[in-house]
User: Which sequence fits this backbone?
């Protein structure tokens, strides 16, 4: 089985759409132009000194302070040196010093901004107060202050600009870290005993790194402008070295007679600053872009290649058989049995919905079938088989492999079902590695492929993210992708649309429906919302107080429901004809406590048709000629009108 699954993984073609989102930086005209400009600037910084240094340093007393000409495009300075060549050669020193100052700014800002994580809240509050005071002063004033402290010259200017920008960057780091620190995956790491430095490096900084890189890029442009300003004032680069700021200062002395001498380095400073800033803005937009799906595209989920995974076919094509399933929990006052005698079966490709109020036993039934209920709870059944394998005998290794590959469980809340400290791709890959025997690389490829199959945009990048970085709908689709890591014959979806808005809910339901039809997979959909089940399922099981009280086709749900509880569930769902000026319909009373179920029908206390027989004798689940099942002494009997409805009819 593992070898066959590995063959399937290796043969799966690479899907489109796996580009890194950093490439989206050049997807817009502004981003492309900024990328070209910044690349040209960096290239010029490398090659200009090699090509034009001699020309830039060559003095010619016969050409002093000449204007632009064919020989000197930007004219000459007071020693007859070519101004354009000097501006080009100064690119390297100007860019190098700006990047070095930016590096100091980032390093100091990271240290200051993360002290609270490393040493606790008290230290963090003190550092925050210092940062707030420093940020209150203008950056140029801080730069001048540090320039006086560190001294005039290149070294002093670099340190001055770096430390002047550090408070602003530190505040950014503090803000971003404060947004990540309370997240579940960080708290889980602390509970697990991970030290603070490892939490910072492993869990916090990777989740804020992209924003910091973007702001550092923009900060490099600001540092370049600031450095030019200090050199212009005579506090930066000193002769015989020169950068754009010094050239600008030299040219400004004769600006009225020879304006091009100041204009050329000024243009260089502005263009370089714009290149850094526009590239940073393009990075911000590119990183923030989420792929728009537009019109929903139902995925074509290819079934495994022939022979990839052996299937157990049966004459009746039954996937699941459950007969008289019971789940009980021991207590100090005796056993409690919240699931009492549940019986049903499912065929390949069939969609069955399970509806009922909270506490009716829906999820416990699914967990019992999936062998996920542990001791001291006790699960018993007359028959409990999956693909012909008897699950009552205990979880053998073969049973675990069968359930791991052919049985898929989609839990109600993916945020709590997924490990917040592990990346999504790794959690999906674990299924194939543990149950399919795949290597790490093969399992990772499979995880990316499954994320793509459930319409996760940019699946390769998303596989490397943590669950908190996914939206609610994406987490739910990732859970579905986890269920597709093997070759499921049955998918159990436990409230897969809880807490999702109607648009995302519709997409998740259509995705499940598409997978069911494409792969001929049986689907057991658990929900408290009867309208959700009606959209997807062929058949509905209505549960109340741990029992199935009605089993009928979905198409008969509204017109031919026979049990009063089923009719009550339908009546409380608002529709387009619900009166807006009247209270919404509710089911009176509350479900019985599993510790004290009544002797007769559990719904009798809330049923308008209940008689003494209902309160004393439990009705059996009987099957009619059409194959529908119902457990009610008064099935098909018309339900009396409530006083409100009677008043409305009159």
Assistant:
């Amino acid at each position: 089985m593992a070898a066959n699954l590995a063959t399937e993984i290796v043969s799966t073609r690479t899907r489109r759409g796996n580009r890194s989102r950093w490439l989206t930086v050049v997807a817009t005209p502004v981003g492309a132009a900024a990328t070209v400009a910044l690349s040209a600037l960096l290239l010029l910084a490398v090659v200009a000194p090699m090509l034009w240094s001699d020309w830039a340093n060559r003095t010619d007393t016969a050409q002093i302070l000449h204007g632009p000409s064919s020989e000197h495009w930007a004219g000459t300075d007071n020693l007859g040196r070519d101004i354009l060549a000097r501006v080009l050669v100064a690119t390297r020193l100007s860019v190098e010093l700006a990047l070095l100052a930016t590096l100091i700014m980032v390093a100091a800002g990271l240290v200051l901004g993360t002290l609270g994580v490393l040493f606790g809240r008290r230290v963090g509050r003190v550092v925050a107060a210092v940062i707030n005071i420093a940020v209150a002063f203008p950056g140029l004033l801080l730069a001048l202050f540090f320039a006086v402290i560190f001294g005039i010259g290149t070294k002093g200017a670099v340190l001055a600009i770096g430390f002047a920008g550090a408070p602003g960057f530190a505040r950014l780091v503090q803000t971003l870290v404060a947004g990540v620190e309370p997240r579940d995956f960080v708290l889980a790491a602390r509970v697990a005993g991970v030290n603070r430095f490892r939490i910072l490096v492993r869990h916090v900084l990777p989740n804020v790194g992209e924003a910091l890189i973007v702001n550092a890029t923009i900060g490099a442009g600001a540092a370049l402008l600031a450095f030019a300003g200090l050199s212009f004032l005579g506090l930066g680069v000193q002769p015989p070295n020169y950068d754009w700021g010094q050239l600008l200062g030299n040219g400004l002395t004769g600006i009225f007679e020879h304006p091009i001498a100041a204009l050329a380095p000024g243009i260089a400073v502005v263009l370089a600053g714009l290149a850094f800033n526009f590239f940073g803005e393009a990075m911000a937009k590119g990183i923030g872009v989420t792929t728009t799906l537009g019109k929903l595209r139902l995925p074509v989920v290819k079934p495994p290649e022939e022979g990839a995974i052996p299937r157990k076919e049966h004459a009746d094509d039954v996937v699941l058989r459950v007969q008289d399933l019971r789940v009980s929990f021991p207590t100090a006052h005796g056993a409690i049995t919240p699931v009492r005698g549940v019986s049903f079966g499912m065929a390949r490709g069939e969609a069955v919905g399970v509806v009922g109020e909270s506490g009716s036993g829906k999820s416990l039934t699914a967990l019992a079938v999936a062998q996920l209920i542990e001791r001291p709870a006790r699960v018993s059944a007359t028959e409990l088989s999956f693909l012909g394998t008897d699950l009552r005998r205990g979880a053998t290794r073969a049973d675990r492999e069968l359930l791991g590959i052919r049985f898929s469980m989609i839990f109600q809340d993916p945020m709590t079902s997924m490990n917040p400290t592990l990346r999504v791709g790794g959690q999906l890959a674990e299924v194939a590695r543990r149950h399919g025997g795949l290597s790490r690389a093969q399992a990772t490829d499979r995880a990316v492929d499954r994320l793509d199959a459930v319409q996760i945009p940019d699946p390769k990048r998303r596989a490397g993210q943590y669950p908190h970085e996914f939206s609610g709908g994406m987490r739910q689709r990732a859970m579905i992708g986890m269920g597709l890591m093997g070759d499921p014959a049955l998918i159990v979806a436990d409230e897969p649309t809880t807490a999702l808005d109607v648009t995302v809910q519709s997409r998740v339901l259509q995705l499940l429906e598409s997978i069911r039809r494409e792969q001929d997979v049986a689907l057991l959909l658990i929900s408290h919302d009867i309208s959700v089940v009606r959209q997807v399922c062929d058949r509905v099981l209505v549960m109340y107080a741990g029992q199935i009280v009605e089993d009928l086709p979905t198409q008969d749900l509204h017109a031919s429901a026979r049990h009063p509880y089923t009719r009550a569930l339908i009546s409380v769902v608002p529709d387009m004809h619900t009166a807006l000026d009247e209270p919404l319909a509710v089911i009176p009373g509350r479900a019985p406590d599993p510790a004290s179920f009544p002797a007769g029908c559990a719904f009798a206390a809330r049923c308008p048709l209940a008689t003494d027989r209902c309160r004393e004798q439990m009705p059996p689940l009987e099957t009619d000629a059409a194959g529908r099942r119902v457990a009610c002494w008064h099935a098909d009997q018309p339900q009396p009108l409530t006083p409100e409805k009677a008043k409305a009819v009159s």
Summary: Residues 410 and 493 are 5 Å apart (CA to CA). The two ends are 68 Å apart (CA to CA).
